[in-house]
Amino acid sequence: MIEILYFEGCPNHEGLETRIRSLIDNAGIHETITHRRIDSEDQARAEHFLGSPTIRVNGIDVEPDASRRTSYGLMCRVYATDEGLRGTPPDKWIINALKQASS
């Protein structure tokens, strides 16, 4: 299962489902995509929400180093990639997470 976690007020999650759907369709993967809105700081801490958007595959964040981070809260997430800072994770992280989940 693929989850897109977000909070209202951060636009980076908009259009993300379409991008993920294209990636999984091209890879021949059939997965459900769900959206989960995070509404409070308490919920953000309980969910280990690193910001909007967060993408998880089978409950695991697609960012390789996410498990080491503890900056939970209602904030727009910034991803440090080889290409610089981005508001969404790179496609290769999503694809790698899907491959790891299926193996």
Structural summary, described in words:
The protein is of the alpha+beta class and 103 residues long. The chain has one domain (2-102). It has three helices and six strands, in the order βαβαββββα. It has helices spanning 16-26, 41-46, 91-102; strands spanning 2-6, 33-37, 54-57, 60-61, 79-81, 84-86. α1 (16-26) links the parallel β1 and β2 (33-37). It starts with a strand and ends with a helix.
Estimate the strand proportion. 15-25%
Uncertain runs: none
Figure out the total of helices. 3
Shape category = globular
| Largest sheet descriptor | 4 strands, mixed
Query: Overall pLDDT, averaged?
Result: 93
Q: What percent of the residues sit in helical stretches (DSSP H or I)?
A: 25-40%
Write the layout of secondary structure elements.
Elements (H helix, E strand, L loop, with lengths): L1 E5 L9 H11 L6 E5 L3 H6 L7 E4 L2 E2 L17 E3 L2 E3 L4 H12 L1
Parallel strand pairs: 1-2
Antiparallel strand pairs: 1-3, 3-4, 5-6
Question: How would you describe this structure in keywords?
Answer:
two-stranded antiparallel ribbon; four-stranded mixed beta sheet
Short description:
This protein has 103 residues and is α+β, with helices and mostly antiparallel strands. The chain has helices spanning 16-26, 41-46, 91-102, and strands at 2-6, 33-37, 54-57, 60-61, 79-81, 84-86. Strand 1 (2-6), helix 1 (16-26) and strand 2 form a beta-alpha-beta unit.
